[in-house]
């Protein structure tokens, strides 16, 4: 087996988040589906940006957020994603390198600009995302470095990658390389609407290509088209080795064959913004798995990371997650 260079390598959309506070009335006036991620084009992105008011810009993207969380926990992470050679692309590259994450994907020199996602946060802390994929659509198989993938203990993929055709090919290539090297593949379902678009493909991935599956309650119910969480739990336990399922304030449930762990949510003073909660949970869980923790402990670490993420605006950690874990576990 190749030398382990990274604990986790994440492959996903390289996006700069534009986070703004808003209310339900604004979402309704714009015809936006609350709490979902919708894809928009460059013109729609420009128009919406002109109407959202003051905002905070920060590097984002689901898998990138997870790898950022892993780095904050003290893990060794790398990221694969496509940016353009523009100002926002440089912002993204600087931010992810600054936290100790390896990011070697070459920038596009032509074509769409670096991707953006307008994250609209309502007073109930729910986030509605309007995403312009931009340069992300140019991520393809040629961006997958076999040595990098084979050198990672776990390859982590975001479900949003299934939208652009070339990214889908990159996704499958990485999974094949990882398994050929005796490594694990992990997938986050990302969003219920994403599941609706790609249900058959995701079912096939869960059964044949994925070792560790992440989903929230709505996503896993949507995947199996069942009436409730318990039915979805019974379905997924037959399809992949490990499923880590988050349930907001109810905590998480981790299932592996006959093994089931129900883990309470970590306490949080005030829920400010749910953006990135699932990404942070995945970071904590994968960190635990790669350092040899059992499933229940990994889920506890994930819950602590998620609680930190929802305590402030934006998806990236504001404190060193490693310190929070040390305080909890001694």
Notes on the structure:
The protein is of the alpha/beta class and 330 residues long. It has a single domain, classed as Ribokinase (UDP-N-acetylmuramoyl-L-alanine:D-glutamate ligase, 3-Layer(aba) Sandwich), CATH 3.40.1190.20. Helices cover 40% and strands 22% of the residues. It has a 9-stranded mixed beta sheet with strand order 6-5-1-9-10-11-12-13-14. A 5-stranded mixed beta sheet has the order 3-8-7-2-4. A hairpin with a 5-residue loop joins strand 12 and strand 13. The mean pLDDT is 92.
Give a concise summary.
The chain is of the alpha/beta class and 330 residues long.
CATH superfamily: Ribokinase
Largest beta sheet, briefly? 9 strands, mixed
N-to-C span: 33 Å
Name the helicity range. Answer: 25-40%
């Amino acid at each position: 087996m190749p030398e382990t260079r990274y604990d986790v390598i994440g492959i996903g959309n390289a996006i700069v988040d534009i986070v703004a506070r808003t209310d339900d009335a604004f979402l309704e006036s714009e015809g936006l589906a609350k709490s979902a991620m919708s894809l928009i084009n460059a013109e729609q992105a420009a128009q919406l940006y002109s109407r959202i008011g003051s905002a905070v810009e920060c590097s984002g993207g689901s898998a990138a957020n997870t790898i950022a969380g892993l780095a904050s926990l003290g893990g060794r992470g790398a990221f694969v994603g496509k940016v353009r050679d523009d100002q926002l692309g440089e912002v993204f590259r600087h931010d992810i390198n600054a936290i100790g994450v390896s990011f070697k994907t070459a920038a596009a020199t032509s074509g769409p600009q670096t991707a953006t996602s307008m994250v609209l946060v309502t007073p109930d802390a729910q986030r509605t995302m309007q995403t312009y994929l931009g340069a992300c659509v140019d991520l393809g198989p040629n961006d997958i470095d076999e040595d990098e993938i084979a050198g990672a203990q776990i390859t982590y993929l975001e479900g949003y990658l299934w939208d652009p055709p070339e990214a889908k090919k990159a996704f499958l290539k990485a999974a094949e390389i990882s398994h050929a090297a005796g490594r694990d593949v992990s997938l986050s379902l990302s969003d219920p609407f994403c599941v609706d678009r790609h249900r058959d493909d995701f079912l096939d991935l869960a059964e044949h290509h994925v070792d560790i599956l992440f989903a929230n309650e709505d996503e896993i119910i949507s995947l199996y088209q069942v009436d409730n969480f318990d039915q979805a739990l019974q379905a997924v336990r037959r399809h992949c080795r490990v499923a880590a399922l988050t349930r907001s304030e109810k905590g998480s449930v981790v299932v592996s064959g006959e093994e089931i762990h129900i883990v309470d949510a970590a306490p949080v003073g005030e829920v400010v913004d749910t953006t990135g909660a699932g990404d942070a949970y995945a970071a904590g869980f994968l960190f635990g798995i790669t350092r040899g923790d059992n499933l229940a402990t990994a889920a506890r670490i994930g819950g602590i990371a998620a609680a930190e993420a929802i305590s402030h605006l934006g998806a990236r950690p504001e404190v060193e997650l490693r310190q929070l874990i040390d305080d909890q576990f001694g």
